[in-house]
Structures are given as C-alpha cells and as structure tokens.
C-alpha cells in the first residue's frame, strides 16, 4: 500500500464573514472552499414539514457546473442528510456551497472541462470540506465523516492499492473506489468503477477502513499503515480543537 | 351527499395519505398467516420481468424498447462520422497504443454521447418546458461513466481508414455521400497509409415513455440492447474526394463488437422507522423498486455485474444515503445481481 501525497491535509475555518460557517480544505491536490448558510427559511415549494431541506451546490474549478456536478451534489446531499439532525429544523433550509478552487491536472493528456473523465476522485475532498464547514456553522451533527479514494492496480501480477492516487495513476488503474465512513465506523457511501471481483472489493474496503477508522488502541497500528496516509478523523478533531482554543483565547 | 359509514379507509386512500405506514403494513402484516408482500404484490427480492424489443426505429442505426413493469424506455443509437482533422488536439494512435490503456480514444474524442430525457407526462412530477431535471442529469452522468469504465464498445470498430488499394472499381455507383466536410488534409495525416482518417461518433439517446421507478437499470438495459442491435454502414475515407463515404448495401453493415454484457441491479433499503438511526428497527431490501418505494427509501444500492465469460466480474458499485448496507450485505446484493443478470441475459438474447 502506497500513497502519493507528500503534504498533509490543511484547513482554515470560519474565514468567510458573511456565511454562517465556512472552511477551506486542501489535500491530495484539491483545494475546496465551502460555505454553509442555515438554518434559513426554505422556499415554500421546497420545504418539508417535519425536517430541514439540505441543499448542496458544487461549483467546478473552471466553467459552470454540468451533469457531473449534479451527480456529485446528489451523492453529497443524500450523505449529509444522514448526519445532519434534520428533524431539529423543520421547514428550514441548510444550504452548503462548495467551490473547487484547485484540482490536480493530468500532465499527460489535455484535460477536458466539459465532461471530465471521472467523478470519483474529488468526492473525499468535497465530503471533508462539507463536514468542516458544517462544524464551523455549528450545525448539529450525529457523526463526522472520513472519506478516502483508492485505486487498485495490477503490477507484475500482484494487486496493489494506491491511496489518494494521482490523475495518471487513476488512468492506469484497473478500478477506482471511494469510501466514506461515519465516526462510528459505519460505511455510509461507496462508489466503485472499473473491473474487480468481490474478494478484491473486500480487500480494498479493509484498506479503506484502516485509513478512515484507525483503531484507537494506539501502539499496534503505528506500523506501515499509519504512515501511509493522513488520519483525517484525527485531523478534523485537531483543527476544531485549535479553532476553539484560539476563539477562547481572550478569556 | 356522501357521509362516511365508518372510520376505515380504503387502501388507496391510506396509500395516498400516509405512504410510509402503508408500505410498512404490507411488509409487516398484523395477521401472521399472510405472507409479507410489497404494495405492488411482489416479494422483497422479486424483480419485474423485462421485455425487450429491438430495431423498432427505422432511422436509427440501432434501437431498443425496454419495458420493465410500468417503466418503459426507448433507446436509439445513431452514428455520425467525424474527421480526425476536425478533432482538436488529435493524436494519431501509434501501434503500441492500440493495446495499452494509455490512450482512450472513446473518452478523449467523445465518441460516445449518451443523453437521457424524461418525457413530459411519463410521471406526474415531470413538468413540460423545464430544463433537464437533476434526475435526468444524474442518470446521464452515470450512464456516461459506466459506458467508459466498462469499455463496452470496441473502439476499433469506430475507426475509419482509407479505402484499400485495389478495391471495387464501381464504387461511384453505390456510394453515399456522408460527410460534406472538405477540409484540407494536414501534412502529418498523409504520412502513413493505414492512418485513422475519421471516427464514428455514437449518439445514444434514451427517452422515458413511462416512469415507474428504477430508471438507471432500465435505461442501461435499453442502451445495452440498442448497442447490440447497432449496425454501422461500412465507411471508408476516399482520398480523391477527401471525404468519408459509406457503402450503401445493408449486407456490408458491421455490428458493434460489444465487450461483455454488464447488467445493473438496483435495490432500495426500506426502514421501519421513517427517520432511522443506526441499529434501531428492522429493514427490508426492495429489489427493483417502483416509484412509490423509491420515494420512501433513503438508501440505494446499485451493482453492475457481468458473467458472460463464466466468473462474475463486478463493474461498478454505488451505494449512498444510509448506513444499513455493510460488506456482508454487499455480498448478498452481488448474488441478487447475478440472478438479475440471468434474467436480462435471457430477455436480450
């Protein structure tokens, strides 16, 4: 198991002053600015009598959003609705806007703006930004999410899993998988494409589980697994801790 | 004047007023002697029988009508030619590229153009005169991704080469002008004899005639059946006239060489509580959900499998909207998809 990311994840919280909550998250070549407004009044025709409407808007780094962004919005909406306590805000709207500012480019071929090759690699960065943004807006959540993208390749007859693959590695891979787990360790989202068997999928799932939900017992998992990618769950926690500490500094 | 005789409601009124308890009451009958069924009379794992009719459109190169319960979809495939000189950033494939995956012509030059339209009136929630709905756009993207990631269409059948030297002399008679483009050939293109001069672009249009749930599976089955039915005329590059010409005779039309038979299978997870949190209450897995069921379920799983060459290959998994589905569940879902594959395979052959 290898990873291609050299620098760890970085985040800035609550830097947009007009939005209720905001965050900028950059990791694995992506930088995404997120903003949350909510709970605000929903439009009459959209409102749900007993729960809040979650609205996600994804804007690409170049051009206007197309079918690909609608698909990503749909996936994010159904996922985030599960962790936001929507029943606390009946007839309200929680709007999450995610603007991609930097996306990694494939240096080997011309990138296409209109219909990009694949939707999946950006999904973990979008999920992570959305969770940080929701926490910045103090929206009550049942859990946080951690997400990872893994490419499976065959090299010299042996299978290899690449965490956070580059655009070139994705192109050469046999299959590409995205997993998202809640902080309770439940699998909430999976998207896979390419060609694989059930056994391979289970192996990759186990790899993703090691990435996203490392066991808290400490010493045992500090081997090669822990070094292979950033622990985004711990990262989210430490970012929030740092933010709260700086907010309470005047006391 | 109608006065209610009692407080009992008819089942259709019950279904309209509170659909969730209605479906739950059907799946969890109070009387233990009745078998739990869905509101549409099916067992939880029972799918609808697909009916497939091909070559129903006369002007398309391939077409199919697929009926899956009350979801009816028509798909037409139309081929058009594009000259390589008209493709921006065109890179002539070297012989080494043909085998390796470094060059994906279908994706780089957009040789497959799927579009999905949900016709007005196919279901009450589709209104006339509005831009494509989120559902239509999502379906288009998913179909586009699956078409490319499954590598279903053999790109070598889409390449158009110069005519072989010493071919028929009477080609003037049976030629059909296909392309009016009269661009100058660039210097680089002349260099090699067997260079690709043009490509076929496949426009794959899917129209929902009636919509009763499970749109992705039905649309994908229609695309699969239409592509299997597609026959492209024999096209070649005429060096003298500098344009692509096609043989008129139907006998020379070549079918697309499809790589495998991927079949999609979707299931929704229905939970006993409307706002289920993890670990509370029972759930049902409804395979091939209809429109009512889709509206009541948060979590959806789609598995794409292909077992044309014996062992089962998985070509795609998509699951979102809940935490009920875990790894063990996914195994069962793949088994369900395998039996769905047999069903579609039988209908398509």
From TrEMBL, chain A:
Its primary localisation, in coarse terms, equals nucleus
Where in or outside the cell?
Nucleus
Q: Per the database record, which ranges form the Exoribonuclease phosphorolytic domain? A: 14-140, 162-210
SUPFAM superfamilies named among the record's database cross-references? Ribonuclease PH domain 2-like (SSF55666), Ribosomal protein S5 domain 2-like (SSF54211)
Identify the domain of life.
Eukaryota
Residues that span the membrane, as ranges: none
Q: InterPro entries from the entry? A: ExoRNase_PH_dom1 (IPR001247), ExoRNase_PH_dom2 (IPR015847), ExoRNase_PH_dom2_sf (IPR036345), PNPase/RNase_PH_dom_sf (IPR027408), Ribosomal_Su5_D2-typ_SF (IPR020568), RNase_PH (IPR050080)
One Pfam family in the UniProt entry: RNase_PH_C
Keywords associated with the record: Exosome, Nucleus, rRNA processing
Family as reported in the entry's similarity comment? Belongs to the RNase PH family.
Under what name is this protein listed?
Answer: Uncharacterized protein
Originating organism = Apiospora rasikravindrae
Lineage at the top is: Eukaryota, Fungi, Dikarya, Ascomycota, Pezizomycotina
From TrEMBL, chain B:
Q: Where is this region: Disordered?
A: 24-54
Coiled-coil residue spans:
171-198
All residue ranges annotated as the Exoribonuclease phosphorolytic domain in the record: 47-233, 261-339
Q: What Pfam family is a match, any one?
A: RNase_PH
List, alphabetically, the Gene3D superfamilies matched. GHMP Kinase, N-terminal domain
- Keywords linked to the UniProt accession: Coiled coil, Cytoplasm, Exonuclease, Exosome, Hydrolase, Nuclease, Nucleus, RNA-binding, rRNA processing
Subcellular localization = Cytoplasm; Nucleus, Nucleolus
Q: What is its main location?
A: cytoplasm
List GO molecular-function terms, semicolon-separated: exonuclease activity
Bias (Polar residues): 31-54
Q: Which domain of life, per UniProt?
A: Eukaryota
Q: Which PANTHER family match?
A: EXOSOME COMPLEX COMPONENT RRP43 (PTHR11097:SF9), EXOSOME COMPLEX EXONUCLEASE RIBOSOMAL RNA PROCESSING PROTEIN (PTHR11097)
Family the entry assigns: Belongs to the RNase PH family.
Q: What is this protein called?
A: Ribosomal RNA-processing protein 43
